[in-house]
Amino acid sequence: MERASDPTCDADYSFDKLVGTDNYHAWTRNMRLLLRSQNLEAHIDVETAICTRYSDHMHGYWQSDGADPRSQEEAHTLREDRRARASIMKACTEEVKSEIALKITARSAWLDLESIYAGRNPGNLMIRHALLLEMRMQSHEELGTWVNRMQRKIADFEDFGGEMSDQTKTLLVLRGITKERQAGAENWVAMKSRVPKAEGQLPDSPVFPPFDTCVKHLHSYQRFIGLKPRKTFRSSALAPQSGDSASNQKLSRR
Q: Which of 43, 45, 112, 219 would be a feasible disulfide site paired with 84, CB 3.0-4.6 Å?
């Protein structure tokens, strides 16, 4: 398991990074000790006015020039809050970091982690479900990596006590794919699975296979596009152009 530490401290504050519910409570105790050693603990308990103004400004809620610190004391407070937030981020695994990446202040990041990992209750389930709905494939991310990431997130949600239909899982994975790859991936899955339409279903409505089958086909699509030049994949490319490929082979032999 990855470890978090503070090389600037004389004391040994090395501890396991936050991975989820299993080590959340131990992590909070250790994280408080670390922030205390840096004189930053107050930033997770109270959000000062300048930090709130700065957060609102960064999120576009408040466009006034007053978002800038008005005194040296405010500037120092803002710097210290950024340090506290950075310490929290460094003590989380990459997957957990993605949950709080948009949080501007240390306290808002801390409260988000608490709401997600502190305990199993309906409120936490709703937050986890909402986060799943908001998840999207990153522009630099490989399709296979995205599929594996969503599998883990869905499994975590179900381990936490959540319920999700097979069709919802499939749609979450497919609709989260980047626009450049989404149409090609959906066409590939539909072509490979050949799931019959249910009675009364509209002719143009998509039909997708069970989640596990969809995952298998998406991995095969990743292998397929990995053999092709890096360009937007179109469904028409599924059928090879016999004339063009034959002429290309003759040119390559020459």
A: 43
Label residue 244 by pLDDT band (50, 70, 90). very low
pLDDT of 132 above 80? yes
d(CA 145, CA 151): 10
Count of CB atoms within 10 A of residue 147's CB?
24
* Higher-scoring residue by pLDDT: 54, 193: 193
The stretch 179-195 carries a mean pLDDT of: 86
Instruction: Quote the tokens at residue 84.
Output: 């506290």
Q: For the chain, which residues make up each domain, given as ranges?
A: 3-117, 122-232
∠ CA 107-110-111 to the nearest 5 degrees? 85
- Angle formed by the axes of helices 49-58 and 72-90, to 10°? 70
The one-character DSSP state at 80 is H
CA distance linking residue 134 with residue 124, whole number of Å: 15
Q: Residue 89: what pLDDT?
A: 95
Residue 150: how many CB atoms within 10 A of its CB? 22
Both tokens of 100, joined, read 């709080």
